[in-house]
Amino acid sequence: MSTDADLTTGNDVTAAHGEVADRVNLLGLTREQLQVLCARLGSKPFRARQLMHWLYKRGCDRFDQMSDLALEFRALLAERAGIRLPEIVSQQQASDGTRKWLLRADQSQAFEMVYIPESDRGTLCISSQVGCALDCAFCATAQQGFNRNLSTAEIVGQVWLARRELGFEPAGDRIITNVVLMGMGEPLANFRNVVPALRIFLDDLGFDLSRRRVTLSTSGLVPQIHRLAQEINVALAVSLHAPDDELRSQLVPINRVHPIAELLEACWHYIDEQNGRSVTFEYVMLDQVNDSPAQARELARLLAGHPAKVNLIPFNPYPGSRFRRSSEAAIGQFRDLLLRGGVMATVRRTRGDDIDAACGQLVGRVTDRTVVRLGSRVEAARIRVAGASV
Ligand code: SAH
């Protein structure tokens, strides 16, 4: 995999957006790609280890501070490479401690990341695209349309930046214990840039995160789930949101291309291939749309006996959203019916909603967009569901 072409992987987008095209951004390179770069610069491949140590263990973004690298090599690096981070446009902190950063992708584009502190862990929720093309009926990001994929360096740069913002931990307690690709975008629609970023998250010379603590959430791009199973082992979350194809096709339009049976088959295959524990199925709780006892039972029938757990997400409203959140009683009953039906189920606690940092509320800033909406291409996106106007 260590070809010359690989060196540009993940940096192609950055270059196309006005950065110095011939100066490779080190944050977009996996360990193997860094080794190729070092060799190409006439240095020993093991220098890649030292570079990664500075980048990821020490949180250093300046070649002149990398004191155990030869001066000549540092000069060469400064000439031929760079360490470029997304720029922070603004940040907000919610009353519950959740923090949200707006990051600049380029002159008119921005995307968001969110840090969620809990007593036993710290979760960073990162974006994989500016906007999203999947057009899920209840998601604020979908309203923005799709602009572009983030580069590997921009995806890795989010974790790097968040660690700096939160104070790089020299040892001991980790501030970021979990990374979830649940921010803006559909990660599997940006497969080429997301997979190298995942490798850097897991690499012990990189962020050294446990594979069970890196979660990729997808709306259900079946061929890419199969590809992912061959490439890398991370926790998989799937946005299911409905127990039957008719409703799911309305809520998550990609279902018209890859219906539930096909999706579930890909999930079980992923678990088999990766020796995983279970797939987490996300299920947004929409009042009188997908939250009835009958639907809970149907969902339990679909998943019981499989390596599955369900995470119920109370719907987070945003300006212009046409859904309502299910009542607490309905959510509790839905969970109980799943448990009774033999399916592990939890309710996701809403975090950061006073700064619009909760699931589905991330909108970043997308202007000059080329709106490509898969849903509208497959079929008309305006559908009426059980009295709720979608
Ligand atoms: N594109 C990925 C990541 C999306 S965000 C995916 O579809 O899985 C993570 C989760 O939040 C997804 O399950 C998504 O469907 C859900 N979500 C989107 N909008 C929401 C909203 N307004 N309220 C609650 N959850 C929402």
Describe the structure.
By secondary structure, the protein is α/β, with parallel strands linked by helices. It is built from 14 helices and 17 strands. The protein has helices at residues 4-8, 12-16, 31-40, 47-57, 71-80, 140-143, 152-166, 191-202, 222-231, 245-251, 260-274, 293-303, 328-340, 374-378; strands at residues 24-25, 81-82, 87-93, 99-106, 109-117, 122-125, 129-131, 146-149, 178-181, 214-218, 235-239, 279-285, 308-314, 344-347, 365-366, 384-385, 388-389. Strands 3, 4, 5, 6, 9, 10, 11, 12, 13, 14 and 15 form an eleven-stranded mixed β-sheet that branches. It has a two-stranded parallel ribbon with strand order 1-2. The chain has a two-stranded antiparallel sheet with strand order 7-8. Helix 9 links the parallel strand 10 and strand 11. Helix 3 crosses helix 4, helix 7 (152-166) runs parallel beside helix 8 (191-202) and helix 12 (293-303) runs parallel beside helix 13 (328-340). The longest helix is centred in the middle third of the chain and has 15 residues, at 152-166. The radius of gyration is 21 Å and the shape is globular. The relative contact order is 0.13.
Features of this protein?
390 residues, alpha/beta, eleven-stranded mixed beta sheet, two-stranded parallel sheet, 34% helix, disordered N terminus, disordered C terminus, binds S-adenosyl-L-homocysteine
How is the secondary structure organized here?
Layout: H1 4-8, H2 12-16, E1 24-25, H3 31-40, H4 47-57, H5 71-80, E2 81-82, E3 87-93, E4 99-106, E5 109-117, E6 122-125, E7 129-131, H6 140-143, E8 146-149, H7 152-166, E9 178-181, H8 191-202, E10 214-218, H9 222-231, E11 235-239, H10 245-251, H11 260-274, E12 279-285, H12 293-303, E13 308-314, H13 328-340, E14 344-347, E15 365-366, H14 374-378, E16 384-385, E17 388-389
Parallel strand pairs: 1-2, 6-9, 9-10, 10-11, 11-12, 12-13, 13-14
Antiparallel strand pairs: 3-4, 4-5, 5-6, 5-15, 7-8, 16-17
The chain binds S-adenosyl-L-homocysteine (SAH).
S-adenosyl-L-homocysteine binds next to strand 10 and strand 12.
